[in-house]
Backbone:
């Protein structure tokens, strides 16, 4: 059985759902960021799979994946800096206890 | 044939590692499982004949972002308390399951226009031509550089001691 576009897209959907569940349920802010990284990687798999199977000689999907990686690196750096800053001032990174802006 | 065997192994290990990230209560071990998941994604890129992206994945994610995450875990010292789920566990599971079901239904029932051309390899020089060459994505590359600079400055400002 040859591996086609659907296999990669379904793998991507499974990883995205796992990341979505984790990002919605976890209390630890660092684990939420880790689940967001899983979701971004799932999207990258879909991008590269489309690039490989739909337009094999254009590479546009791979370029999109590179830009997603750039944004993910920036997001991880700023997000972890915010988490460390919150931990310094509030001694916790539990997302249910960081409720200063909750109405 | 080799590609399909490699795909199944990588897909199963990757999904298992992603599930481990969610199941484990120990945050540090969850981060190690995340590194394994990112490595399998690099292997998936190799099976898609995206060699440059696989190298970039290993360099940026496995080498860079995972170190950042482990450093943040060490600095916040919440390893013992773990990462318990909040009250939204069942609604979140339902949302994720419905999303997965809709996605798989759509993906299986869509007639994709798959091209039969062989993939371009190696991709490095072609990617460089697309990114930096004439009529390519040079403006987006410059904006990405500015974004990375802003992110570095923002991270420094956020964690600096007052």
Residues:
């Amino acid at each position: 059985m040859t591996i086609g576009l659907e296999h990669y897209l379904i793998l991507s959907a499974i990883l995205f759902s796992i990341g979505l569940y984790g990002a919605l349920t976890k209390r630890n802010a660092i684990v939420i960021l880790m689940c967001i990284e899983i979701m971004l990687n799932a999207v990258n798999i879909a991008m590269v799979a489309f690039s490989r199977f739909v337009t094999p000689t254009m590479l546009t999907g791979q370029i999109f994946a590179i830009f997603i990686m750039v944004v993910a690196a920036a997001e991880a750096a700023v997000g972890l800096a915010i988490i460390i800053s919150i931990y310094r001032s509030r001694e916790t990174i539990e997302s249910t206890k960081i409720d200063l802006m909750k109405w | 044939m080799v590609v399909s065997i490699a795909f199944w192994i990588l897909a199963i290990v990757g999904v298992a590692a992603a599930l481990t990230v969610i199941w484990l209560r120990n945050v540090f071990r969850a981060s190690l499982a995340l590194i394994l998941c990112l490595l399998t994604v690099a292997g998936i890129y190799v099976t898609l004949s995206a060699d440059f992206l696989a190298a970039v994945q290993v360099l940026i994610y496995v080498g860079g972002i995972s170190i950042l995450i482990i450093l943040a875990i060490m600095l916040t010292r919440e390893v013992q308390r773990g990462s318990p789920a909040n009250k939204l566990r069942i609604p979140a599971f339902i949302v994720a399951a419905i999303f997965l079901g809709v996605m798989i239904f759509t993906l299986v029932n869509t007639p994709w226009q798959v091209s039969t051309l062989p993939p371009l390899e190696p991709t490095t020089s072609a990617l460089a031509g697309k990114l930096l060459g004439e009529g390519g994505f040079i403006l987006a590359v410059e904006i990405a550089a500015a974004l990375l600079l802003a992110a570095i400055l923002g991270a420094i400002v956020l964690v600096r001691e007052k």
Chain B touches chain A through 84 residues (CB under 8 Å). The longest helix of chain B spans residues 51-76. Chain B has a mean pLDDT of 89.
